[in-house]
Amino acid sequence: MSREGRDKKNKSEASTRSHTQARSSSDIFKTILLVVIVGSLAWFYKAIQPPPTGTVGSTGGASVTSPRIKLRDGRQLAYKEFGFPRDEAKFKIIYIHGFDSCMLDSPFPQFLSQALVEELRIYTVSFDRPGYGESDPDPNRSPRSIALDIEELADGLGLGPNFYVVGLSMGGEITWTCLKYIPHRLAGAALLGPVINYWWRNLPRDITREALSLTSPADQWALRVAHHAPSLTYWWNTQKWFPFSNVIAGNKVIFSRQDMEVVSKLGGFSPNLAYIRQQGEYESIHRDLKVGFSRWEFDPLDLQDPFPNNNGSVHLWHGDEDRFVPVKLQRYIASKLPWIHYHELSGSGYLLPYVEGLTDKITKSLLVGEEEST
């Protein structure tokens, strides 16, 4: 072979080795990259999974200390009764607690006057919503399911064909689901500072954008995550990069002047916090966020008057200094649902039923009519 031929052969072999080494390095890099990606995805998937729930009454879980009603699917709802004896009462009210709260936070025992209880023979019952306190979690929970839980609770306690519901904050949001799914069981309803899902389809986008902008950046972010990426709510909250929600943290920025006065009198905003979250934050507050701000299967603005024969009434109470839910949203809803009795309280904030005298006023308005409550 000539020298020129040998040089060409050597160059060819060197080129082949160079390309082989390059391909080998590229393949190794791709393999490493794939391993990193798969490992990262596996880590992230594991990170967003909720921790095991310490179900009440189970091994390792909290003890059962309250009476409970067993539902059709086997879950248990814990409840607490107040006021006039159930079998002798004229008016029967189911209280629906708000976000990060429980049945022990009902305002009726402390703030509904005994004189009014005796005069009108008022019975009230509060209950721990699924995943809170001593009520079992509901992995299939939806806006509809909690309304059906309330109906089962009423039947289990023998409250009769009709009863009243009163809901505060997110409990007020749930009251909308009662008006949708069990209106035939209601004698009346009161929504106290009800939480609004900013993504109900009939709410104008310009109004919801403006209302959302009035809340703190942390709370805006929390609500958007709950709606657009609900599986991330728990994980994001645990990262502690910045406050996920001022509501969850109980920061004073969310309270109005009147709210701060109420909190001071109560000795704190959430005295039952350990009990509230004893089954874990995921099953209590984070599932609440996921359901409350999900894509609902109905819009409350489509609801018809549940009492066309004036055999009951629906009342919506809101403080114009509420920093949880901007009052503009409630004004719009009240304007679109003329059958709602709308009460806007000047200078009031979020903690309406804990203000001296207001629980009596709210209750009388619901049970015996607006004109008698003034």
TrEMBL record:
Q: Which SUPFAM superfamilies match?
A: alpha/beta-Hydrolases
Q: Which organism is it from?
A: Brassica carinata (Ethiopian mustard)
Pfam families per UniProt: Abhydrolase_6
Which keywords does this chain's UniProt record carry? Membrane, Transmembrane, Transmembrane helix
Q: Which residues belong to the signal peptide in this entry?
A: none
Q: What is this protein called?
A: AB hydrolase-1 domain-containing protein
Domain AB hydrolase-1, which positions? 93-350
| TM region positions | 27-45
Q: Which InterPro entries match?
A: AB_hydrolase_1, AB_hydrolase_fold
Gene3D superfamilies recorded for this chain?
A: alpha/beta hydrolase
Q: Where is this region: Disordered?
A: 1-20
Question: Can the keyword Transmembrane be found in this entry's annotation?
Answer: yes
Composition-biased stretches, type Basic and acidic residues, lie in 1-16
